[in-house]
Amino acid sequence: MNRSPDPALSPGAQRIGDPLWTTPLLTALSLLIAIAVSFIGSGAFGGTPVQQVAGGYLSADATLLAPAGPAFSIWSVVYTGLAVYGIYQLTAPGRRSGWGAKLRVPAMISALLNAAWISVVQLGWLGFSVIVIFALVAVLAWMIRLMSSGTPGSRTEYWVIWLTFGLYLGWVCVASIANAAAWLLSLGVGEGARWAPATAVALLVVAALMAMAISYYAGNAFAALAISWGLAWIGVSRLAGSNPSEIVGYASLGCALVALLGSLLIAWRRRTAAGAGAGGRIS
């Protein structure tokens, strides 16, 4: 199993000869569905913005773990990456990559779960949306595992897929915590409770540790970048929004910094160790 931090530089990338178009086309179609449904979730084509559905429990100031509005601009980066990936995996190098072929099924499932999440929140089914988003986290984690255990065929394939799905996983990790908090609040759990800020801080610490754990496993900090982004905007929302909490706000900013710097250090050490190991084998 290849666990190099930069597998694009490692030998042994598998190629498959003249694959069928069926799976690549289905993958592209699923990604197109996800992107189209995202426009509805943004309020276009008659849809209602996500922050306004489900009784407003997903708005930026509904819970102590809700990020400020600008945080959600990361979706434009993720969807752009998904569009680029969808096109790339239809090209000859993309279709013939053995590494890429293993990733199409989880990529398809993640796209459909993404569309499903937007659909259920549009219907106001907040509890069901929690199930869907944690399923999405699980599928993206599965995809990261597959990505870490193989060798991409080129630097282009490495960057297109790792950057896109790394950011995707990181952001969805933050979104899943916020989603769960919104659902619990809708049930009256923690509303005005004295223990709520401490619980929120504990979850922020978990998110920071998760960022560093993913960076160690993957050998890069792509997911951590998105997690740090989300945590930072939670801090901004708590310090400048209409649902203020200084302890949660400063803890969130601190966790964002720790997650970012810690993950970058971990990824750098993994890359350095892998380079030293490769040099030793060559000599």
Please outline the helices and strands.
Blueprint: H1 22-41, H2 74-88, H3 92-95, H4 98-122, H5 126-148, H6 155-186, H7 196-218, H8 222-240, H9 246-282
Helix pairs in contact: 1-2, 1-4, 2-6, 4-5, 5-6, 6-8, 7-8, 7-9, 8-9
From the spread of the alpha carbons, the general shape counts as globular
Helix content: 55-70%
Distance linking N and C termini: 22 Å
Task: Output the helix-strand order.
Answer: HHHHHHHHH
Tally of DSSP β-strands: 0
Query: Whole-number average pLDDT?
Result: 90
Using only CA atoms, what is the Rg?
20 Å
Main sheet?
none
Strand content: under 5%
Structure class: mainly alpha
Low-confidence stretches: 1-5
Number of helices: 9
Describe this entry's structure for a reader.
The chain is mostly helical. The chain is built from nine helices and no strands. α2 (74-88) packs across α6, α7 (196-218) runs parallel beside α9 (246-282) and α8 (222-240) packs antiparallel against α9 (246-282). The relative contact order is 0.14.
Short description:
By secondary structure, the chain is an all-alpha fold. The protein is 70% helix and 0% strand.
Describe this protein with a few key phrases:
9 helices; globular; 283 residues; disordered N terminus
